[in-house]
Design brief:
Mean pLDDT of chain C: 96
Chains: A alpha/beta, B alpha+beta, C alpha+beta, D alpha+beta
Number of helices of chain C: 23
Order of helices and strands of chain D: EEEHEEEH
CATH superfamily of chain D: Folate-binding superfamily
Number of strands of chain C: 51
Helix content of chain C: 10-25%
Largest sheet of chain D: 4 strands, antiparallel
CATH class of chain D: Alpha Beta
Strand order of the largest sheet of chain D: 3-4-5-6
Structural class of chain C: alpha+beta
Oligomer: heterotetramer
Radius of gyration of chain D: 14 Å
Structural class of chain D: alpha+beta
Number of strands of chain D: 6
Largest sheet of chain C: 7 strands, mixed
Helix content of chain D: 10-25%
Mean pLDDT of chain D: 96
Low-confidence stretches of chain C: none
Amino acid sequence: MRFSGFRVVKEALTGHKGWRPLWRNPAPQPAYDYVIVGGGGHGLSTAYHLAKVFKGSRIAVLEKGWLGSGNIGRNTTIIRSNYLLPGNEPFYEFSMKLWENMEQEFNFNAMVSQRGILNLIHTDAQRDAYRRRGNAMLLAGADAELLDRDGVRGMYPWLNFDNARFPIKGGLLQRRAGTARHDGVAWGYARGADLLGVDLIQNCEVTGFRIENGRVLGVETSRGYIGAKKVGVAVAGSSGRVMQMAGMRLPIESHVLQAFVSEGLKPVVDGVITFGAGHFYVSQSDKGGLVFGGDIDGYNSYAQRGNLPVIEDVAEGGMALMPAIGRARLLRAWGGIMDMSMDGSPIIDRTPIEGLYLNAGWCYGGFKATPASGYAFAQLLATDAPHPTASAYRLDRFARGYVIDEKGMGAQPNLH
Amino acid sequence: MTDLSPITALGGAVPRSVSFGALSLSENTGLALASLSLRRGASQPVPMGLQLPGPGGWTAGNGVAAFWTGPGQWMLEGEGRAEESFARELKSRAPDCSVTEQTDGFVAIEIASAAGPEPIRALMRKLVNIDAAGFGPGCATRTGLEHMTVFVIRRAEDRLAIIGMRSLAGSLWHALAQAAARLEGEPA
Amino acid sequence: MTRLSGGLIDRSQTLRFTFDGKSYTGHPGDTLASALLANDVRLMGRSFKYHRPRGVFTAGSEEPNALVELRTGARQEPNTRATMAELFDGLSANSQNRVGSLNFDLLAVNDLASPFFAAGFYYKTFMWPRAFWEKLYEPMIRRAAGLGSLSMQADPDAYDKGFLHCDLLVIGGGAAGLAAALTAARSGAQVILADEDFRLGGRLLSESHSLNDAPATDWIAALEAEFASLPNLRVMRRTTVFGTFDHGIYGAVERVSDHLAAPFAAVRQTLWRITAKRAILAAGATERHIPFANNDRPGIMLAGAMRSYANRFAASPADRVAIFTNNDDGHRTALDLAAKGVEIAGVIDSRAGVRALGQYPVFAGAMVSDAKGRLGLTRLQVTRDGQSHWLDCGALGIAGGWNPNVHLASHHRGRPVWDETLLSFVPGQDGPPVMSVAGAAAGKGSTHAALTSGAEAALAALSELGRTATLPDLPRAEDAPINQQAFWHVPGKGRAWVDFQNDVTVKDIKLAHQENMRPVEHLKRWTTLGMATDQGKTANVTALAVMAELTGKSIPETGTTIFRPPYTGVALSVLGGGDTGKHFRPTRLTPTHDWAKAQGAVFVEVGQWMRAQYFPRAGETTWRETVDREVLATRAGVGLCDVTTLGKVDVQGADAGEFLNRLYANAMASLKVGMVRYGLMLREDGHAYDDGTCARLAEDHYVVTTTTAQAGPVYRHMEYARQCLWPELDVQLISTTDAWAQISVAGPNARALLERIVDGFDLSNTAFPFMACTELTVCKGLRARLFRISFSGELAYEIAVPARYGNALMAQMIEVGADLGATPYGTEALGVLRIEKGHAAGNELNGQTTAQMLGMGKMVSTKKDAIGAVMSRREGLSAERRILVGLMPVDASQPVVAGSHLFAPDAEQKTETDLGWITSACFSPHVGSGIGLGFLADGTARIGQEIIAANPLQGQSVRLRVVSPHFVDPEGGRLRD
Amino acid sequence: MLIPHPLLGLRDAQEFTYLGDAALLNRPDGMAEGAAEAFNDYVYLRDNPAGVHRELWFHEQGDRSWLIVTRNTVTHEILGAELARDVALAAKGGAQ
């Protein structure tokens, strides 16, 4: 069924009787050409692009819980391509271009909204670093603007300009960045994949890999054994424990990242703002909630919940930057488990086990990568060759010394 | 004696002090400090006749005092001896230990209550995540306070010392004075 | 008037307040909601999506409808529940989420268009043309969405943080909580009793039941008197425990002054972090409703709330009310209101064969199937056995059973379990191990059961803590079952609201089911169920029941939602704590701060430090003019700069040298006593970490410096190396950063100046050569340390004295050095001097660079194992071609801009052809043009060549010449003289 | 969270700074054969268990002891804490 304004009107006038399920609930087949483990954003995007772009067939997505229950279901919805390093920026810009055409592509309104992201500058050294980054973005075909203090004040006059511990000296603005309705992205890819014949199998937990002679044959699941020619794992947050079933240790730690939303408010924050002197970033959803976050809790965790000091830290940053939001109330806090990699950048690569592919290590930047990650992973699965913009995301880059360390923090995941 | 004139950690020529209700805060500029660490194989000394306290403890005697700062580590206090070579004297009394002069590394703020222990406890509740009920005289610990790290010493039921980094003296004073002022202004 | 007799309001005082500009009066003890009801105001708000007129639905923090903007100006507080706003004299509130007045909201047009706005409609349209989303559709949606508004002025009130510790935290001051607190406090344990209400008692305040044959308030009053005498019990009213965190830590907000007219003498609110060995959750229960068509009319509310208004607040929403119930509890409301003189139009009871418990009509086996009265209920349709009739009334109380408030027991993702007898979720066994649940929150809803379970929970908790306590004499109390029927919603065609605030109806749930959005998380996300400010407290279980009916599964099979903090909304200002603005983070001042301030220095934030940036003089019009002067004065005479901010670590012990050898990439053990060596630290991954100097004061004593920015992390790293990697070494560490005021004395006259302050120390080049260090005295006996090191390329020293003398030493040196040109310089000139000399600083040591890139590849010793040495030899690091070079404009009038990328002159400028970037740049008065440092591929080989610095961000493209990074005295003669 | 400091009792985790897996104590010998592989494993690869994890915490705002805390990463339950120095010394055969 094609969605359109006409269809919405027609259904409204006929009691909504014509709406069909967004996707089927198929029973698992004994074997597939491709099994994607993980029905989060990246897994669904992979299946969609595998079917759509690379004409794959006999594809299944195996999801432990409900579709979209990965980190695509709990994030701060920001999309951007404002990276510094050549291993990253072209990939995220590729992703941005996919975002820009996503909804027409899969006929589902994921509310991609390009209202801009502004990274605030508080020191001269930070300005130098952002200038380097902004130039890297432009050189990779993305957009960027460097604002001075007045430029920032013109956009957001209610930021703390006059009583700040760390004065605002300017900002790096990417206008094409913004937000997207995170669940809508998952549903759009899921519906699109389902229409292309992909079996989306919910409540199907992978409990093991069947590996013989260094080659993967299929997966053991809570719903029985499923054979596969190729298995792609896209379970960021749980990559450690899933890949352990294949006998692999990864350059990844699992950490909890909290995010927050305020009660609904009339529009005040138009785009995305990040504080450069504290742990705080914010946007406002179409429903009116201020969606904000900060730093990870900082310790290994699979608990999907965080602790009070980080909540206070983020709120302190928010109040320091935006003292006018003080009377808004925090409505909900949640925690997601992040694959924090050793250099802060992801992995899209083959593994030493033939037929087993890995998409992991997204740290807390996975949402914005959803379209390109799925595209690139699908290409790798289909052709065994990496997508050109994802060619640096190799698993062996650590051993060989080609890390992609945007923050320059070294091999300590909780600092990325 | 040098011809240079020192200033206090808070930048004054004389120590600062202020009162809020029952609580008074005063900058203790006379306090000499020196750290002492056991070297490998060294036995615990009894410097200047003082039995060094165990973890979490503060002891005073013979005109000096000491608090535990870490395994095998203490800070020695010499009240009114900031202008002396306190560290050198300590080193001479504990030659097998590493001794470092610390008098100028810190600001010491002495807090006194004129109404018994409760104002001290109330102030602690607003400042540090330490259970005031279990933090009686003779307790000392290092902890966080408004993004600073401080030593907190309960010198007596009605006296508390907060020792913070010297460069942060102004921010520390602000935090303590504001907390004390707000306690004074609390609705009955 | 619908003000009733009795109640817990203080009629001796009258409080004036306004709502939407109209004046009303109430009394102490009122909430805004109760006072409005008492003034015949039923319409209090508008719903989120359809802008339906709404009245107050509850009497507590679960309120979905009666949300207002409280106070005005910078204190305007949106989405404030009128049910929780304690009335004070002068209170001002306005309704919200409306265009026009509350009575005539223009956006109510949405309600007429509601067929188009079914669940999930957004996802199916607004996609064409593409550009219209940001320009048209989304702005339209954003304007219509949201609830209350912020003033966007800075919050003027003060907030506080604090820490509490106790043996037992009791959450909730109702029957169970009071019994628990009493039991525990009598045992001598440290107890905190926290309740969100301004008055202790919980539901006891809302019921007409007696305790020991007397009003419940008598028992509460006696208890409060005893509580006041127990120093080990802290009673916290107006305090919401909003979150359960790990290991017995709870977040709580005390509304210290919200019930007072502002401005407040103290703080508005305090955030408490409570650490409790054990906790008892006695948060009561929330009543649920029974959806039917048009069940959102103002005047329709929960029956328990109606009882609260009547009994506690002496207010009724109407003179004639009806009750819709599936249990006996609804009849209590009828009895209590009748006793207060309110006419009962009837009790519509879904259970067949039930009888009235008093003098009021009962419609047994019936249900309410529709309601009339857009701005206030006028009539109800009552249906029984397919026959309907209309019943006139101004208010309806709905009693659909009670949901235990399990939230705080489920913040660790513990799942509540379904109790088929109670027809509700009760806390499961997987809650926090240090928390137990009592009273209605545990499904023990009768007063007797609540009292008993509270006291018993306290006994159990104390016994786990090794304390003995005795069960107090608890008052005799009602213990009647409510005989509930599983009746979840009224079938029918009209819209029946489940989640009032977010306008989620039974139809929306049916549509979600039809579209296969059946897992409860899909249901929530597709329909927005439970995502409003009340977090679905009155909606979620009912919605599960509807979905369960559709799928044919049981309610527990259908699922339960995950409870997350906070329990109720918490103001960002109180979470953000007491100190903000300039006090957001503490400020570190250098020892010469006061002196610099007196000189008129401009200061700059450097991490936590404030440092003098430059020292403008009269007549200087730009900062550049000042900085150029400072630089030239230093190179011509002598400059003085406070460099105290560099981290200083005292390293002692027999193995100090060996320890530093392993920590630094270059050798340190071989350093002679009395000498200093530059040191480069790598991270274990082989990248450059930090640099500084190591001065050897004695065989077993070094003083090492770190960069300002990394002082903390490097100290931590050194302790890690000492304790975790090489505990066998005899080494002791202590930071001495603040103990010493350290001043850089640089320039050709540096020696001459120092000779005037040292106490007879031989500073000649032979006695005290480049890289020497010593302990000495200055200014007639002041102990000091002197290091002959240079970051400017000039003859230079750093002198350290006890911090309290730093201010005076600086003043003294400027004074005695006047004829030598002694000039203070700030961080800007410091930066220029080091760039001119080609010294790496933070922009070069940014964590992404290597020793090789910094031109220090040879410093990484291959003869010893040191941190990072092995990994620095990896293929990728060895193959790195970019190296630090100097850069000068070909045309001296052109700027050199840090952050520019470097390209070959003829290359197309793109990621693939990028050769490097400019790390640091400045105007060099010494060179007479802009200069820069940068990392350039094959840079050393390119020296002398031209290169393009591209800064497309600012439309710049400048031809530069590649030069040695040492713009000043590349041979290093000056600093060795 | 509360960390059971072996010398100071329960202390708020906010006083601590977290590093990671306690396997970081077992630093390979940089001069030994095969050091490159050993360091890759040591610096980059982690067990990252969903369950009991031994990990390094630094009492930064306290006594500056490095601790090895044994903690369940799924429940956050803490099973114990030791001074890292003691553990490291024991591993080195109790030198000193």
